[in-house]
Write a structure and sequence with these properties.
With 337 residues, the chain is of the alpha+beta class. Helices cover 33% and strands 23% of the residues. The strands form three sheets. It has an eight-stranded mixed β-sheet with strand order 4-3-5-6-7-8-9-10, sandwiched between helices. Strands 12-11-13-15-14 form a five-stranded mixed β-sheet, sandwiched between helices. A hairpin with a 4-residue loop joins strand 8 and strand 9 (184-190). The longest helix has 21 residues, at 31-51. The radius of gyration is 20 Å and the shape is globular.
Amino acid sequence: MDHNKMALPVGATLDRFIMRKQEDFPYATGELSQLLRDIALAAKIVNREINRSGLIDIAGAYGSQNVQGEDQQKLDVVANIRFIRALRNGGEVCTIISEEDEEMIQTGNVQGKYVVAIDPLDGSSNIDVNVSIGTIFSIYRRMSPTGRDGTAADCLQPGTHQVAAGYVIYGSSTMLVYTTGNGVNGFTYEPSLGEFFLSHPDIQTPTTGTVYSVNEGSSSSFAPAVAAYVQQCKAQGFSARYIGSLVADFHRNLLKGGIYFYPATAKNSSGKLRLMYECNPLAFIVEQAGGKSSNGTRRTMEIEPQALHERCPVFIGSKELVEEVERLIAENAGATA
């Protein structure tokens, strides 16, 4: 055995990394750092519940639907409870919006300076077949004065106002990836130590790729430009990779290059993904890593949200691939004008 390898450092812990990065901001007072730690703590708890779900009967359907009209899984409910509890107890968040709740969630922390939008468990229907799933979160500064509950205006901010965003992927290893607007860093969870360690510093996504990720089962109702792009990908020998868990598809393409898209379809005329807690946070991350996110005609983060659970089409990933879709859409619009 190579004894030198045994002595290699495992990397900076998430807590230490957050503390060091806080020093880069002379006016930082620690609330955002604490908030990120609260999210990491909840992620550890959810990771534990996922890993033992088959042993304690919390896999499978819960027996009701969420506000999206989707069948809730038991772990959807568990993850939602865990993250809301962690954010409420942490004290930094005044209001939460969650995929699992129709209305804003007031934490009672009226002095809290932040608002969180979260999808507690993305892709949860894949739990029963042991496929990677995830958590997606977005953090905004509140707009309203402290001393009272957060407002709808606090929650309905464009993605350009995000101060941090990230996701957790629960797979062969559990990773937390986040940005505060100064690059993207990934941390891998070491369960025996109970710590996230920096494993992917300064992630940069390739400018192009040869992977496209889309649910081709709906391709018969794609707009002509989008259908043409799919055919173009095939003609160029691209590989089709679609897991059905947004975080898993996004994470692979972020690291290796590629494009994920969920366009408007006959069934979902505004797309399927939610702007506030799926599209915006991932758009922030991919842009910080050198990629791009668009609804086909407009930068995702510039869309002015109108509703908590608003949906929008999304094309996200390597910059050159997203720009090619936008070009085809623009050409098609010009031809039919």
